[in-house]
C-alpha cells in the first residue's frame, strides 16, 4: 500500500463512510472553531475537508502548520453534519476525522496566497508561478490545455494525419519576425536560428512523399508581448497536406474546430460551416481582417454624401476634396441613449489618437432631421440617402469619422468593438468563426517604400499562372487564408508555391535576386526541383485556442511558465549573463554598451 495516500483528495464519497484512509496534500486553509480545527486538504485532483478535535494530541501541532505546507493525515471518513455539506465539492458530503498527522514539507510565509482568486501584480505572479499555478482557476486552465492538446492529437490521427517532429536548430529566415539566434561552437562565426515555425520543413515533408503531416510545434519569435501573443515562444497545431486545394484545408480544420470547441465549451458555435470573407470585404465592413462576427455593427463608406451641395459640414467636405474618405457606424434604436453615451465614445476615440467620432441621431417630426452636434449640416434629402447606404431607420444613431483610409480603418475597427461593448450587443455565449480569404500577394510598405510580401512568401498566387500580370503585383491575389474566432486570429495558412521558377519571379518583385533566393532557401528550392506535389496547410495557435476555451483575455493565463512583457522569466531569472569561458568556446566577444 502507498504510504502517502489511500485516496486522492477528490475521491471520498458517502460510500466511503467508516473507512480508515490516508490523504496527503497541501494545507489549503484552516478554520479554528476553538474546540474543532477544520483543515481543507488539497491535491491535484480536488479538496477534502478534515477535522481534528481539541482533545486530539495533533490539534496544537496542526494549529501551527502554515498554509501550503504539505501534510499527511490518517483518519476515519464520517458524514458531515446536516447543513454543513458543500455540494460544490465531489467530497462535500463527508469529512475525515483526523487520528494522526505528519508534515511532509514546510512552507515559508507566502508572497501570494493560494486560497481565493484575488488579482495580484503580474510580476509577483510570474516570479512565484509555482504558487500561482496552485490556484484553482490557473490549475484548471493548465489541465484544460493538456486535455485540448491530447484531444487534438487523437482527432488528427483519426483524420489520417501522422505526427512528425521537425528540427529546432535551423537556418535564419529573411522573412517574418526577428529570429532567436544560437551560436555554433563547431562552426565559429555562424549561427543557428530557432524556428519561427516549421514552414520549410513541413513543406519538405510533403516533397518527401508523406501525404498528411501534423505536429504540436514549438515556435520561437523575438517579438514584443501582447495579450494574445507570448514574447518568446508559443505552440501551434502545424499541419500540411499533399494534393489539396484550399477547400480541402478548410474542411479538415472546420471539422476539427467544431468538434474541439463543442467538446470543451458549452458555448454555441454561430456557424459550423465557417463564413468565407474576402480580405477586401473584411477591411471595408469591419476595418480589420480579424472581425468579431458576434458584433452586428457594420462599417459603411459614406464619402459620396459629402459631395452633395445640401451637406454643409465643411470640415469633412474639405478633407474629402484632399483625398480623405468618410465612414460610418450605425447603431440601432439608440434614440433614448443619454448625451453622455455619445460624448464618451467621442472622447474615447480622441484618447486613441483619433480626431474623435462625430455623431447624430435620426428623428422624425414633420420631416426627417438629425439630432446631435453635427445634425444641422444635413438636409432631409441627404439624410434619406445616408439612411439608404447605412440601412438606418428613424431612431438609429450614426457615428462618423474622416481620414486617410488605413488610419480610418484602424480607429473604426476598434470603435466598432467599443460601441458594441458599451451597448452590450456582443453575444458572449457564442463562438463565431470565419475564414478571411483572397489576401493580396504583395503590399506596399510605406516605411521601406517598396513592395513586400503581404503574408507568406511561399504561397501560390491565384489565377492562370501563364497569364499573371507581374507588372501589376499589387493586383495579384494569393491562396492565403486566416481563421478567426471572436476577433482573435487563430492562424494563417496557404496553398504553397511548389514551382521554383514561379518562386524566383515572385521573390524578384519583393527585391530578392535568384542568387539570394538560392542562398536563403537552398533546401527548399533544391527539393522543389525534384518533383513537388501541390500542397498546403495551416497552423492554428494552441495558446489562443485554449485562451478562447478558458474565456480568458490574456495568453499568460493559459501558459505554464510564460515570460513577462520584457521577455524575461522572473522565476528562472532568464535571460542571464554567461561566463567568459562559455563565450570563448563560442568565439563570441560581448561589447557592453556604457549606460548613460
Strand content: 15-25%
Number of helices: 16
Helical residue percent?
25-40%
Q: How far apart, in Å, are the first and last alpha carbons?
A: 65 Å
Instruction: Note poorly predicted spans.
Output: none
Key traits:
5-stranded mixed barrel, 596 residues, globular, alpha+beta
Kindly describe this structure.
With 596 residues, this protein is of the alpha+beta class. The chain contains 16 helices and 24 strands. The protein has an eight-stranded mixed sheet, sandwiched between helices. The protein has a five-stranded mixed barrel with strand order 1-2-3-5-4. The longest helix is centred in the first third of the chain and has 23 residues, at 136-158. It is globular. The mean pLDDT is 94.
Brief summary of the model shown:
The chain has 596 residues and is α+β, with helices and mostly antiparallel strands. Helix content is 27%, strand content 24%. It has 16 helices and 24 strands.
List the helices and strands and how they pair.
Elements: E1 20-32, E2 36-42, E3 47-53, H1 59-63, E4 70-79, E5 94-105, H2 122-127, H3 129-132, H4 136-158, E6 162-163, E7 181-183, E8 191-193, H5 199-207, E9 212-220, E10 233-242, H6 246-264, E11 268-269, E12 276-278, H7 279-286, E13 299-301, H8 314-321, E14 325-331, H9 339-351, E15 358-364, E16 368-371, H10 380-390, E17 397-403, H11 405-423, E18 430-431, E19 433-437, E20 442-445, E21 450-453, E22 480-485, E23 488-495, H12 500-509, H13 514-520, H14 522-528, E24 535-538, H15 542-549, H16 580-585
Helix pairs in contact: 4-15, 5-14, 13-14
